[in-house]
Amino acid sequence: MSLRSGYHVALAARDLGHDVTEVDVDANLTRTLTSADLVFIALHGRDGEDGTLQLACEALDVAYTGSTPLACRMCFDKGLAKGLMLKAGFPTPPAYVIPAEAVRHMGAGAALRNAAKRLGFPMVVKPTTQGSALGLALVEDPEELTAAALAAFDHGDRLLLERFVPGTEVSIAVYGSKLTALPAVEIKTKSQVFDFETRVSPGAYEFDRASSDIDAAVGQLAVDVATQMGVRDFGRVDMRVSDDGPTVLDVKTCPGLTETSIVTYATANASLRFDDFVATVLDNALARIRQ
Ligand SMILES: Nc1ncnc2c1ncn2[C@@H]1O[C@H](COP(=O)(O)OP(=O)(O)O)[C@@H](O)[C@H]1O
Ligand SMILES: [Mg+2]
User: What is the number of domains present in the chain?
Assistant: First the structure.
């Protein structure tokens, strides 16, 4: 997806009159980056979202778009993000972080089962540091817990055991020097969760513009959460809206920007040209260079 995001952003940047070179991660990446006036980071997954590439840019003194290494780290680690959101008073489902180390070497298998009992079924088990719903499972029965935990540990050394939230799934893109929300996008799936299988199966999901009631309930919350978490230039906040109101699942500092991504869909709903969205992000980053 990173390559397709990069391609889409490059098209827009060229439309805007910039001289653009598209680069993928390789052993020469940092050397290539040092020759650029500005790097648009459209790299998803660990190195693009956990702050790795951003740290390299900081150390190289290369200007880049998007959030700082610290903000990337805080959002990418779902356990850390949850702690910070709770501390700031934002709604997010109750959860426990379980480290693989504690299960393997401290006999914490019982802690896992106890945490599950306290949360109640169904629940979602997911690695704390992974995206695209990899290693994520909806667990409806205590007997499925161990297998789900082992699968999550395949993707990282900690897992999040999180209470399942029913309701409408929405995702809100935010952008700008002072973040503003684009119209909320509802994600309609046949499955109960927007899992990996669903994401890669054509026709298994569709986007829709969220109702005006939902949009009104989540826009400002998305801006507040993203601002609190340090999102810069652009980002995306994933939520579920149930009878109890909205609750935040996930904050993305480097969301997908392909032709078919949520952010792109949201720009269209706002009658904002994707070129203009990219122009705003670039202008913000360029303004930081001049400061
Ligand atoms: N607590 C939860 N309740 C209901 N669904 C969830 C929960 N956590 C995750 N999901 C489902 O799994 C998907 C992916 O989880 P998320 O936390 O957003 O991680 P990521 O987007 O990084 O894979 C969500 O879009 C949602 O459909
Ligand atoms: Mg998500």
Answer: 2
